[in-house]
Structure formats: C-alpha cells, structure tokens
UniProtKB/TrEMBL annotation:
Record Gene3D superfamilies: UbiA prenyltransferase
Membrane topology designation: Multi-pass membrane protein
Alphabetical keyword list: Cell membrane, Membrane, Transferase, Transmembrane, Transmembrane helix
Organism: Ilyomonas limi
Localization terms from the record: Membrane
Pfam families for this protein: UbiA
Segments crossing the lipid bilayer: 7-25, 31-53, 74-96, 102-119, 155-173, 185-204, 210-228, 248-275
Protein name as it appears in the record: Polyprenyltransferase
Length: 288
C-alpha cells in the first residue's frame, strides 16, 4: 500500500481543502466529518491504486523487483487483488458520503480509481501517456480535496494542473530506477520542477501571501533538487531512485506551500508535520 506515499496523498486533500477556503468559511468551528471522509477516501484510493500496481506487475517483478510482497510470496496475487478492490471501494464510498451523493466528490473518486487502474494496466508502459496518466491521478486527488466546497471547483480547477506536471516529471525519471536513466530526462524534470515553483509563487503573489509560501518553497526546492543534481551527475538507477523517492515525499512540502499561498498558515504547518511521519514510514516501507 506504500504507507509513506499515502501520507503524501492525505496532504493533497488538506491542501485542496485550504485552496477551497473551507477553514475561512467556518471561522466559528469546522465540521470535521467531511474532512475525515475525504482523508479516508484518499487513503483507500491511493492504497488500492498501488496495490493493483503490484498485482499487474507481479510477473515482471519476479525479475526486476523480487523483494516486493507478491513475487516474494508474502501475499498471494488474488488476495492482493481483493485488498486493492476493497480499498478502492472504501475510497469511492467515503467520498460519496461527503455531500450525501456522488456529486461532486464521489464522481471525482471514481475518476481517480479509473485513472489509477488505467495507469497500472496500460499507462505505465507508454513513454508519454504514462507520466501524464499518473499526473492526472494526483491532480484529481487535489480536486477531491477542493470538492469539499463544490463551487470552489469552478474557481480553482486549473490549479490541479500543477501536480499533474510535477508528478509527470517524477514518473518520467522513475523509468530509470532499475537500469539507469538519461541526463536529458533529468534536466527536463528539473525544468518542470521550476515551473511548479514559479506557478505557486505567482498564485502567492496574487493572494499577497508570498512571504509565507516562500518559506515552504525553499524547503521544497532543497528536498527535490539536491538528489536530482546527484542523479544528473551520475544517472545510475540507485541515485535516480533516491531522486524519485525525494520527489514523492516532497509533495508534502509542496502542499504546505499551497496551504500557505491561500492564507491558511496553521494548516500549512500541520501539513509539514506529516513529513517526519512519511519519512519514518519510508524507512520501513517501499516508496517506489
């Protein structure tokens, strides 16, 4: 289920909630149930998606990643598929209860499940559509958080394109984890990373919150560019793997920057606190 990654998915939801202005809408006190349901939803959707990733890759993993649970014999393939299906169902049902119906959170959850399965089965094998497919999963996850206030989707849907770009870059370089990669691919990822940072800065400037978001963006930049620089200098599989791992976990800092950009500094600080948890989990469980 990639527990460390699931924590980053939770940070997507919290960032989306901040972007929607949920905290500002209820200054006298929040209604915790919708937040809880969306967090539960993303846990199910992300967990189910990566479980099916291992299910579809079971034969290939026997050769390339025999340490994974299915090829190593820790779990039967059919049991893993059952777990993945239950998790996806939990994710969709939890989202459907946010607004007592499928619209809009439930439909977004269904779209995430479809996009995740499409990536697991077909998308990952395509050099261009694969990274885009994976990015769409994350963009939809951010929209799932924004959907806590449905009308906010019409105003802020375009922001979901930023994580699409970011995750597409990570997915693009992750193809070199096993056999090594190409420097031009890593340089392209660096350009995409810079575009993401600039986009958040522009939103922060518009919202007059650039001082707050910049602090998180500095940490974000350090976390993603340091391992990427090492991978560019020597694009072997192990260093690329570290760059991919850092890029995934750094999503927490990016989401904290989003929360700060929309004036919810307290939530931004809470999101940052998820990073030590994710890093701790990453020591015990695989990230990629």
């Amino acid at each position: 289920m990639r527990p460390a990654n699931i924590v980053t998915a939770v940070s997507d939801i919290l960032a989306g909630i901040a972007i929607a202005g949920y905290f500002a809408s209820y200054p006298g006190g929040l209604y915790p149930l919708p937040v809880t349901l969306l967090v539960l939803s993303t846990i199910g959707l992300y967990g189910g998606g990566v479980v099916f990733n291992d299910v579809f890759d079971a034969e290939l993993d026997k050769v390339e990643r025999p340490e994974r649970p299915i090829p190593s014999g820790l779990i039967l393939k059919q049991n893993a598929a059952l777990l993945g299906g239950v998790l996806l169902l939990i994710g969709i049902v939890a989202a459907a209860f946010v607004h007592a119906g499928l619209l809009p959170s439930g439909l977004i959850a269904i779209a995430i499940a479809i996009a995740a399965l499409a990536y697991d089965k077909w998308g990952k094998h395509h050099p261009l559509l694969g990274p885009l497919n994976m990015g769409i999963c994350r963009g939809l996850n951010l929209l799932l958080g924004i959907s806590i206030i449905p009308v906010a989707l019409y105003q802020y849907w375009a922001i979901s394109l930023i994580p699409v770009l970011y995750i597409a870059a990570i997915t693009m370089i992750s193809r070199g984890e096993v056999h090594g990669g190409k420097k031009r691919t890593l340089y392209a990822a660096a350009v995409f990373y810079l575009m993401v940072i600039v986009a958040i800065l522009l939103v922060s400037f518009t919202n007059k919150t650039i001082v707050f978001s910049s602090a998180f963006l500095v940490l974000f930049g350090i976390m993603i560019f340091m391992p990427l620089k090492k991978a560019i200098q020597d694009p072997k599989g192990a260093l690329i793997g570290k760059a991919v791992k850092a890029g995934v976990l750094a999503l927490i800092l990016m989401n904290a920057a989003w929360a700060a950009a929309f004036g919810t500094l307290s939530l931004a600080l809470f999101i940052v606190l998820l990073l030590p948890l994710s890093l701790w989990m990453a020591k015990a469980f695989a990230v990629t």
